[in-house]
Amino acid sequence: VQLQASGGGLVQAGGSLRLSCVTSGFNFDDYSIGWFRQAPGKDREFVASIVSGGTVNYADSVKGRFTISRDNRLKTVYLQMNSLNSDDTAVYYCSMWQRYWGQGTQVTVSS
Question: Is the pLDDT of residue 59 over 90?
Answer without folding.
Answer: yes
